Amino acid sequence: MDSSTPEDEPTAFDPSVGGSMADRSADEAQRAAELAAAVDPTGLVQRTLLDRVGSPEALKSLDRSELPALCDELRSFLLDTVQATGGHLGSNLGVVELTVALHWVYDFGRDHIVLDTSHQSYPHKILTGRKDRFGSLRQTGGLCGFTNPHESPFDLFHLGHAGTSISLGVGLAIASASRHPDEDPNLRPQAVAVIGDASLGAGVAFEALNHAGARGERMLVVLNDNEWSIAQSVGALARYLSRIRTNRTLMRARQEIGNLIASIPVIGDKVDRTLDQVREVLRHAIISGHVFEELGVRYVGPLDGHDVLLLVDQLEKIRQLDGCILLHTLTQKGKGHPDASEHPERVHAAKPPNSIVKPAEAQARYTRESEKVLATAAQRCGTTLDSGISYTQAFGDAVLECARGDLRVHAITAGMPSGTGLGGFSKEFPTRFHDVGITEQHGIAMAAGMAKGGLRPIVAVYSTFLQRGYDQVFQEVALQELPVVFAMDRAGLVGQDGPTHNGVFDIAFQRIFPGFTLCAPRDATDMRRMLASALELDGPVGLRYPRGSCPGHERITESERAPMVPGRAEVLLDGQDVAVWAYGALVSEAILAAERLRERDIHITVVDARYAKPLDEELLSKHLRQHRTLITLEEHQRAGGFGSAVLEAQSRIGERACHVRTLGVPDAYQEHRTQREEQLAHCGLDAAGLERIVSTALRAVKRS
Ligand SMILES: Cc1ncc(C[n+]2csc(CCOP(=O)(O)OP(=O)(O)O)c2C)c(N)n1
Ligand SMILES: CC(=O)[C@@H](O)[C@H](O)COP(=O)(O)O
Ligand SMILES: [Mg+2]
């Protein structure tokens, strides 16, 4: 039988699910409704104003004096719900007043709001009719943790990567001017971008300001400055904003003069033109230091971002102004949470308590895997399938070990020191640790410079955010054949964050560069060996591992394992019926499937492929000869991934009698689900899915 392409693969998942909220099954909708109802089962919490505000129109029907009380209710609602569901609590607690004020002054049925990254969109969701579903936030079938047009017309974009809101806003402003050429500019739909202090440091945000300032299109950029990224904001921009904040006297003077300036009409008769000149002179005398002003973006602020009435007041004035305005608001990340002052990083994202979010489906899956099956599988294959340390921690430990033995090893993160497991490294090697802020492009190009200079840089980055620096991966690193290691965390499905954060494209986009080595460890021991071996290579390396735990209690000792050599796979089980070549963390699922199949007297070969590039073509060729079916398994988009590499190799090698089936993420964006394991099961990438495919393949072989 000829090799199949990924497209004609029989699928164990439901291909209709993947992008649209409308496509959800009735079961999922039911679960979401139950979760939503679980938020306040007693119905005791009285939030009389919030209960009345089911839409932006309803908000506008409140009396202005009621807005502070509404904000209090909104904040207490967030504290109750998000601590139960998990989610970006700190960022949202900080933008309560800002969001209420924006919805009060603007009409986002007509005006356009873009929330940068959109992890701070919860108050916006609540004010736009989604309060009653809030208990389902980030759960399977429930509300998305980011803005999502499938969810509401008030969400213009599905975003999760930082820094692009101003560009999107400029585009919307251009569209508005172009589509309403004869309308009074005050009445045209207006664009508002809300961006955090750390996201403003992203290169793309500066590109947008550069353009917006020159064009002078009417739009508002709200800078929500809480001094924190996930960790503390870093860089010269953070220092600059801090100087503005701390110089309170100058701040007050600037604010008063700024108000005065804003109250002067801009264009008009002779008197107004004179005032215009006065205004410009004052502006330059008082606030000429502002980077934004120099770029042609009018700066207003800084304002207390928790004074909702002040914000409303200022926004009403700003709405009448021409040009690109930047409103600088000062807020506290996590405001209202007891940890906000001491530990803002802890409040960035609340972890859901297991009891509430463990979905029935995932629980069922875990109870199905009896301890006995796990233990015997483990014995045979040298590893147990219970949870060990996270892959992130395994990387954090491995990088420390490598750095202790080699002074040339430096670690780079783009604003994610703890998420990428570099906490220990930053403490032990502060001078060899570089948090460049949310600037992946810069971080990667800088790594290229460091490698050229004789260092061994490791860029620790979430797979999805590496995409931001793709051209630097190509030109500055790959084309120069430089030894930069990309340690790609969250490479695979990520559960609650969903499509913006699923890291399922990296094999495809790195595999095509000549000279790249691609590898994925199956467990913590191989993480250590693989990283050490990657640092020995002369070219770029992409090392990928998912959000999740390594298998616990490894039983194959290091000395018993096959050497870690690029292009060498490791055979874990020998069988005759079907060969499974698994890549990275999914090796565990292949082992578990093998064990279950063995109980049915079906014996499969399991290979830990280790390297997607170079592939072990010698072993592959042998297995293609020896098996009727060879299945590849990876936590990556099926198109272009490890399986595609195997198919391409088969077309070079020949051995076409073997039917190659590629299992990976189907050609659809995978929605958020409560657990990564649910997403794996949905895509047919768990042991049960593999077992099904093996059985189908064997039936097909028998028929042929
Ligand atoms: C391109 C990119 N890199 C990294 C991240 C991870 N990330 C998400 S939120 C965040 C911090 C954002 O800080 P800020 O913009 O100040 O917003 P805040 O959470 O403080 O409101 C980071 C680094 C991302 N979303 N996008
Ligand atoms: C908004 C954002 O990009 C991060 O906060 C992300 O949600 C972190 O997810 P992890 O929990 O996988 O670190
Ligand atoms: Mg911030």
From TrEMBL:
Its EC number is 2.2.1.7. Pathway: Metabolic intermediate biosynthesis; 1-deoxy-D-xylulose 5-phosphate biosynthesis; 1-deoxy-D-xylulose 5-phosphate from D-glyceraldehyde 3-phosphate and pyruvate: step 1/1. PROSITE patterns: TRANSKETOLASE_1, TRANSKETOLASE_2. Binds 1 thiamine pyrophosphate per subunit. Binds 1 Mg(2+) ion per subunit. Pfam families: DXP_synthase_N, Transket_pyr, Transketolase_C. Mg(2+) binds at residues 197, 226. Keywords: Isoprene biosynthesis, Magnesium, Metal-binding, Thiamine biosynthesis, Thiamine pyrophosphate, Transferase. GO terms for biological process: isopentenyl diphosphate biosynthetic process, methylerythritol 4-phosphate pathway; terpenoid biosynthetic process; thiamine biosynthetic process. Its cofactor is thiamine diphosphate; Mg(2+). The keyword Transferase applies. It catalyses: D-glyceraldehyde 3-phosphate + pyruvate + H(+) = 1-deoxy-D-xylulose 5-phosphate + CO2. GO terms for cellular component: cytosol. Homodimer. Belongs to the transketolase family. DXPS subfamily. This is 1-deoxy-D-xylulose-5-phosphate synthase. The gene is dxs.
